[in-house]
Specification:
4-stranded mixed β-sheet, 1 helix
Length: 108
């Protein structure tokens, strides 16, 4: 019976921690531009890249010296790509199809 109480208590703590996590931040893509040039998020926060454009995009994310390199693959109109940012640092985001589309994400 004691073990069940400990398990239930830990489950409640974990659920509370998940509820306290920062909500996702959405970045739009329209007119061959990101909706913002600079974004600041907290460690562990997810960024949702939403393709609101009438053309496909390809999100690429690289981190300054922290070994992060991500490629979303082809993102069709209406598609979305979600990326949690687990490590603090500065990240460069570009579109692999439209290299003029650029933004910076700083993770605290």
């Amino acid at each position: 019976m004691k073990k069940l109480g400990v398990v239930l208590g830990l489950s409640a703590i974990l659920a509370f921690g998940a509820a306290m996590a920062d909500p996702p931040v959405t970045v739009g893509q329209a007119g061959l531009k990101f909706s913002t040039k600079n974004l600041e998020v907290n460690k562990g926060q997810t960024v949702v890249f939403m393709n609101d454009d009438d053309t496909s995009h390809n999100i690429t994310v690289t981190g300054d010296g922290n070994g992060v390199s991500v490629n979303s693959g082809l993102q069709p109109p209406g598609g979305k790509f979600e990326m949690p940012f687990a490590k603090p640092g500065t990240y460069q985001v570009t579109c692999g199809i439209h290299p003029k589309m650029k933004m910076t994400i700083v993770v605290k």
